[in-house]
Design brief:
binds uridine-diphosphate-2(N-acetylglucosaminyl) butyric acid, about 425 residues, 14 helices, alpha/beta, about 30% helix, five-stranded mixed β-sheet, about 25% strand, UDP-n-acetylglucosamine1-carboxyvinyl-transferase, Chain, 2 domains
Length: about 425
């Protein structure tokens, strides 16, 4: 078993370069299959989620050439096969293949997708979008058989601005006949990245950064070259680390407006932060002020940074509160933070943090990706040694995290036990 061993309380100096966005890559890789020929994607992060997608592409007989940070994907010999559950259950994004195979072949059979256990995560909005575009869906033992005689554009009013349902509706709408309008669409930057790439491939989609997306269906798409946007959650995670330990820490290759909800809160907490066009510099500040956050869809505070931010709040003077409105199960890091010395109470969707409290190294478990990031940050600021188990969750979403942190002075390593 692999664990992360951290010797805490080391100041961090230097530059951390942010990689390509995980949640963009996991949508754009399946989207390339809509084309008739090859696409080159650059800035693909080196994380295990991408390894699973690559295995899925291989399974579908898609030609893939992966070099450092890039992926050339040629779907010309693709086959419409049922993706085995052991692959589809590894990540939520596997249901983007559902949309792509439906759009291309008008038939797909697949299991319910996997992903972090952070809530019930139903897929009803995706299924509603497929139905409105003309598909019939049969579900038996969590296996979905989806088929359509013809896919025809329609208006799709989403009940909530779901990232996954918006992406799936775009992926099917793009090759459907006529016009598709997605109302109450999600506006996360990863959706903008998908629309930009699909338009390069010959799609006709309007509505980047707006909650109404209008798609004029086309009959075929061609390959293109595309650079994935930087990962805003990785950027935010290292900025939080810099607020605690930066001496100073430069976070390079970012799009500042993508993390504005975080940097606004950091300014409120009096974090010493200089933001430039595509990088920021952050310094540790001895006295951080408590604050309150509530997670909500973009451009509000992202649920994916909530858990790392809770660790920061344990070091702020006074009472902070954190309300999680997206997922039911995103406080699983808190018992472990309390074990390390934090003072956090949970009442339904709200966590109340009393700070500042000294954290002491301990053995803790990464229950999911962002809980893992929260505990890793706790380990970096704690006195003594922290051991984190179940680190496969962390490696799903943070590329070369040990190397990036070691390069700026952290004492962190993966150990086989
Ligand atoms: N929801 C429904 N029905 C649906 C779809 C969503 O009730 O059909 C609910 C969900 O249960 C949740 C909320 O709506 O409460 C938002 O879900 P959404 O569909 O927006 O999330 P997602 O597409 O499953 C993506 C990211 C998550 C990120 C969320 C919110 C990917 C692969 N995953 O998930 O990323 O938390 O958007 O921004 O893009 C992570 O990276 O750690 C992660 C979990």
């Amino acid at each position: 078993m692999q664990v992360l061993k951290i010797m805490g309380n080391q100041k961090l100096t230097g530059t951390i370069r942010i990689g390509g966005s995980k949640n963009s890559s996991v949508a754009l890789i399946p989207a390339t299959l809509l084309a008739s020929n090859q696409t080159t994607l650059c800035n693909i992060p080196s994380i295990s989620d991408i390894d699973y997608l690559e295995k899925t592409l291989n399974y579908l007989n898609v030609k893939v050439n992966r070099a450092s940070g890039s992926m050339v994907i040629d779907p010309s010999s693709m086959e419409n096969l049922e993706i085995p559950e052991e692959l589809s259950s590894k990540l939520r994004a596997s249901y983007y293949f559902m949309a792509v195979l439906l759009a291309k072949y008008k038939y797909v059979k697949m299991h319910f997708p996997g992903g972090c256990q952070i809530g019930s995560r139903p897929i009803d909005q995706t299924l509603k979008a497929f139905r409105l575009l003309g598909a019939n869906i049969k579900e038996e033992d969590s296996i979905y058989t989806i088929e359509a005689k013809e896919l025809v554009g329609n208006t799709i009013p989403l009940d909530m601005p779901s990232v996954g349902a918006t992406i799936n509706a775009i992926l099917v709408g793009v090759l459907a006949k006529g016009t598709t309008i997605i109302k109450n669409a999600a506006t996360e930057p990863e959706i903008g990245d998908l629309i930009t790439m699909l338009n390069k491939m010959g799609a006709k989609i309007k509505g980047i950064n707006t909650n109404e997306i209008i798609i004029k269906g086309v009959t075929n798409l061609h390959g293109c070259n595309h650079d994935i946007i930087p990962d805003r959650i990785e950027a935010g995670t290292y900025t939080i680390i810099g607020a605690l330990l930066g001496n100073p820490l430069k976070i390079d290759n970012i799009i500042p407006k993508h993390i504005q909800s975080l940097t606004t809160k950091l300014h409120d907490m009096q974090v010493n932060l200089d933001i430039h066009e595509d990088y920021l510099v952050v310094n540790n500040q001895n006295k951080l002020i408590a604050t309150d956050i509530m997670t909500a869809p973009f451009p509000n505070f992202p649920t994916d940074l909530q858990q790392p931010f809770v660790t920061l709040l344990t070091q702020a003077q006074g009472k902070s509160s954190v309300k999680e409105t997206i997922y039911e199960n995103r406080f699983m890091n808190i018992p472990y933070l309390n074990k390390m010395g934090a003072n956090i109470q949970i009442n339904q969707k709200t966590a109340t943090i009393l700070g500042a409290t000294k954290l002491v190294g301990s053995e803790v478990k990464a229950t999911d990706l962002r809980a893992g990031a929260s505990l890793l940050i706790a380990g970096l600021i704690a006195e003594g040694k922290t051991i984190i188990t179940d680190i496969n969750h962390i490696l799903r979403g943070y590329e070369e995290i040990v190397e990036k942190l070691t390069n700026v002075g952290a004492k962190i390593e993966i150990e086989e036990i």
